[in-house]
Amino acid sequence: MNLLKIVFILLILSSCKNDKKEGHDIPEVQDTTKIETSQETNKEAEQYIKNSYDDVLAKRIGGYITDSIVKKDIDFLNATDRRFQFYTTDLNGDQNKEIFVLLNGSYFCGSGGCTMLLLNSDLSVITSFTVMTPPLFIEKREDKDWAVLLIRNEGALKELIYKDGSYPSNPSILPDAPYDAPSGHAQIAFDDNFSKAKTYTF
Questions:
Q1: What is the DSSP string of 36-105?
Q2: Which superkingdom (predicted)?
Q3: According to the model, what pLDDT value does residue 6 have?
Q4: 3-class SS at 22?
Q5: 131 is in which domain, residue-wise?
Q6: For an engineered disulfide with 104, which of 13, 60, 83, 122 has Cβ 3.0 to 4.6 Å away?
Q7: Alpha-carbon gap, residue 67 to 74, rounded angstroms
Q8: Looking at 111-199, which runs of residues are DSSP E strands?
Q9: For the chain, which ranges sit under pLDDT 70?
Q10: What pLDDT sits at residue 15?
Q11: What is the pLDDT of residues 51-89, one digit of tens each?
Q12: Minimal CA–CA distance to 127: which of 103, 100, 147?
């Protein structure tokens, strides 16, 4: 009887080995999709300055542009016209981030520069800038509790100071700043060399 049991067990073991060879015994495979996606996302995020990389916020901004800025002309825009970048920062120390939005393409840009929006965190408009040529410099220095902004227009540095609920919308009509360069403490927005922003579409 014992001999029969041993033979029976050997037959079962032999069968299991054959199944493994033939691929019947499929090993449990770890799902690495989520891990790979996370690694790809982190790698992509490292390319951009953190103030400009937020897919959820980008979707909100894209919806705002579509519904409030280009609603009537949306069907006439080409792919280049439907690109934008953003940069978030607290300009007035209230712990809420304001959002600069740089719009691209011939619909928003001309020889003097491009349209740039400054939005509150709820996406209401603070300033709609015209003829803006990046990079934008956001100084630590404040005037009326809001950060001083600097941008170059036709080679000259312009100083944008907050007044009566907004910044000047057209830097080209402002006098030149009384200095030639931003301070070493200024934040730099929309500069591929120092603060590359992710480009989104709407």
A1: HHHHHHHHHHTTS-GGG--HHHHHHHHHHIIIIISTTTGGG--TGGGEEEEEEE-SSSSS--EEEEEE-S
A2: Bacteria
A3: 58
A4: coil
A5: 50-201
A6: 83
A7: 9
A8: 113-119, 125-143, 146-153, 156-160, 187-189
A9: 1-45
A10: 53
A11: 999 999 999 999 999 999 999 999 999 999 999 999 999
A12: 100
Domains in the chain: how many in total?
A: 1
Q: Kindly state the tokens that stand for 127.
A: 């300033």
Give the span between the Cα atoms of 47 and 130, in whole angstroms.
Answer: 28
Backbone region of residue 132 per phi and psi (left: phi > 0; alpha: psi in -120 to 50; beta: other values): beta
Compute and round to an integer the Cα radius of gyration of the chain.
29
Residue showing tokens 């199944």: 19
Q: How far is CA 54 from the centre of its chain?
A: 5
pLDDT score of 46: 83
Give me the pLDDT at residue 41, please.
56
- The answer to the question of residue 1 being in a domain is no
- C-alpha 103, offset from chain centre: 13
